[in-house]
TrEMBL record:
Membrane-traversing stretches: 6-30, 51-77, 83-108
Full protein name: Tetraspanin
InterPro entries: Tetraspanin/Peripherin, Tetraspanin_animals, Tetraspanin_EC2_sf
Organism listed in the record: Maylandia zebra
Keyword field: Disulfide bond, Glycoprotein, Membrane, Transmembrane, Transmembrane helix
Membrane topology annotation: Multi-pass membrane protein
C-alpha cells in the first residue's frame, strides 16, 4: 500500500510541476505581452497595477510549485516525515494565497467599470500628452483596439493635450487621412471608446487565470492529501 501511495505522490508531483511551469509561462506572458491587460491598465493609475498585477504573482507561484515538486520528490525518496510535513504545510499556504487572490480578482472584475472610469478620465485629462509613458501606452491601446478615449472623444475635451495642440484631438479619434483631428471631425467619425474592449480583455484574462488556478488548485489539494497519507504510513512503519 505504501508503494502505491508513493507512486501516486510522485505522479501528482509531476503533474504539479507541469502546472507550475504552465503558471510560470502564463505569468511571463501577461507581464511581457505589449497588448496585455496589465500594460493597457497602466495609464490609469499606479494603484491599478497593484490590483491586477497577476502576472508577477503567477511567476512566483509557478516557480514555487516547481521547487516544491523537487522538494516533494526528495522527501518521498528519503522517506523523510519532516520534509513531507514541510511540503504539505507550504503547499497549504500557497493554496490559501491563491484562493485569496482569486477572490480579489473576481471582486475587481465585478467593479471594473467604476474603478476604470474613475481612473481613466483624469489620466486622459491631465497626463495624456504630458507624461511620455502614459501617452505612449494610451496611443498603443487606442491603436490596437481601434478606439478613442475611455468613453469616446469627449474624454479629451478641455484636456491638457487639447489645450497644447490648439484644440486638436488625437488623430485616432478621427477616421480621416489628416494629421489633425477637430472635435467636429471626431463627432462625425464616431469612433467608439475603449471601455468595452478593455472590460472584455479583463474578463478574458480573469477567466484564463481562474481556470488555470482552479486546475492547479485541485492538484495542490491532491498533493497535500497524498503527502499526509504517505506521512501517516511512514509514521505507522516507525511505530
Amino acid at each position: 500500500l505504501i508503494i502505491l501511495t508513493f507512486f501516486q505522490f510522485i505522479w501528482i508531483l509531476f503533474l504539479l510541476q507541469m502546472g507550475g511551469l504552465t503558471l510560470l509561462a502564463l505569468g511571463i506572458w501577461v507581464s511581457s505581452d505589449g497588448a496585455s491587460l496589465l500594460q493597457i491598465l497602466r495609464p490609469f493609475s499606479k494603484q491599478s497595477t497593484q490590483v491586477v498585477n497577476v502576472g508577477f504573482f503567477c511567476i512566483v507561484i509557478g516557480a514555487a510549485l516547481v521547487l516544491l515538486g523537487i522538494l516533494g520528490c526528495y522527501a518521498a525518496h528519503k522517506k523523510s516525515k519532516c520534509l513531507l510535513l514541510t511540503f504539505a504545510s507550504i503547499m497549504l499556504i500557497i493554496f490559501i494565497s491563491e484562493v485569496a487572490t482569486g477572490v480579489v480578482a473576481l471582486t475587481y472584475t465585478s467593479f471594473a467599470e467604476g474603478i476604470l472610469r474613475a481612473w481613466a478620465t483624469p489620466a486622459l485629462q491631465n497626463q495624456y500628452g504630458n507624461d511620455p509613458a502614459v501617452t505612449k501606452l494610451w496611443n498603443s491601446t487606442m491603436t490596437q483596439l481601434h478606439c478613442c478615449g475611455f468613453s469616446n472623444y469627449t474624454d479629451f475635451m478641455g484636456s491638457n493635450f487639447q489645450n497644447a495642440t490648439g484644440g486638436s484631438l488625437p488623430s485616432i479619434c478621427c477616421r480621416t487621412n489628416n494629421n489633425t483631428c477637430t472635435p467636429a471631425q471626431a463627432e462625425y467619425s464616431n469612433v467608439q471608446g475603449c471601455f468595452q474592449q478593455i472590460l472584455m480583455i479583463i474578463k478574458e484574462n480573469a477567466s484564463t487565470m481562474g481556470g488555470t488556478a482552479a486546475g492547479i488548485g485541485l492538484l495542490e489539494i491532491a498533493a497535500i492529501l497524498v503527502s499526509i497519507n504517505l506521512y501517516c504510513h511512514l509514521d505507522n512503519e516507525d511505530s
